[in-house]
Amino acid sequence: xxxxxxxxxPFTRETAIAKVRxxxxxxxxxxxxxxxxxxxxxxxxxxxxxxxxxxxxxxxxLTRKWNxxxxxxxxxxxxxxxx
Length: 83
What we know:
Elements: H1 13-28, H2 32-36, E1 44-47, E2 50-53, H3 55-68
Antiparallel strand pairs: 1-2
């Protein structure tokens, strides 16, 4: 089963902003399960000395992260978008 999270490329300025805001909104909930759904089931992550794979590991990592960082807030912006 394929999981699709629109908007999809190619991006316009508006759809790029919408995609970034959706990611920010998910991250800012500090809900590891919700954030993990934005990534493929076999996503590979690296954080400093940790390397892990899969949504369950993402949830574990983010749970630990947000237990330490109580005031976490994502502000990604669209600096990398050029048309």
